[in-house]
Design goal:
2 helices; Aspartate Aminotransferase, domain 2; two-stranded parallel sheet
Length: 94
């Protein structure tokens, strides 16, 4: 996903924002709550990292970001959770 997004940006077909992670490999939802802009069309988060084992706090990311709470004029902003690496790790309910 990341390489595809970078290629789209390189070709000037998209603008991407990469959320920084803590030393643990986890996205801090409070630090990244303004990363989504009015022109955002997709949010993609790798749920589980198969190399270091970090599990992203998807529910908290959605709660902390107003766009994902549908408070901004983005009624159907998709959230791609990239769950293929962590499918059996926990019950996923949003």
């Amino acid at each position: 996903m990341l390489e595809t997004c970078k290629l789209l940006q390189k070709r000037k077909l998209a603008e991407i924002s990469i959320m920084p992670v803590e030393s643990s490999g986890i996205v801090d939802p409070k630090k990244n709550k303004n990363a989504i802009k009015k022109n955002t069309v997709l949010v993609s988060v790798m749920y589980a990292n198969n190399e270091i084992g970090a599990i992203q706090p998807i529910r908290e990311i959605a709660r902390e970001n107003p766009a994902l709470q549908k408070e901004l004029p983005l009624p159907d902003l998709p959230l791609n959770k990239g769950e293929e690496q962590g499918g059996g790790l926990s019950a996923l309910s949003y």
